[in-house]
From TrEMBL:
This is Antibiotic biosynthesis monooxygenase. The keyword Oxidoreductase applies. GO terms for molecular function: monooxygenase activity. Keywords: Monooxygenase, Oxidoreductase. It comes from the Bacteria.
Length: 98
């Protein structure tokens, strides 16, 4: 399985708008995506009000690629999200059974 960690920092002043998008669009979309085993969304905290994250567990690399395309190292960005986000960081790991 593949662990995909996707972090964003919103543009200044866009925190509330992104939070609404995150809860109403992004979380339901990811939870309903074929090939995802589990999703762990992380909402902003008071000490980092512009930072949000997803930890997604994908069944395998093929499932991830079928969602984001061959270049799975780049962000799959909803057009509604693009204007709200200043910075994105994506990392991939092999999930270690625990």
């Amino acid at each position: 399985m593949i662990m995909r960690i996707f972090q964003v920092v919103t543009r200044p002043g866009k925190e509330a708008e992104f939070s609404k998008f995150f809860h109403e669009v992004a979380i339901p979309l990811m939870k309903g995506t074929e090939g995802i085993v589990d999703v762990f969304p992380g909402a902003a905290r008071p000490e980092s009000p512009r930072a949000f994250a997803f930890v997604m567990i994908w069944r395998d690399l093929d499932a991830l690629k079928s969602f984001v395309g061959e270049d799975y190292t780049t962000a799959h960005v909803d057009p509604a999200e693009d204007a709200l986000v200043e910075h994105r960081l994506i990392r991939h790991y092999d999930l270690v059974p625990g």
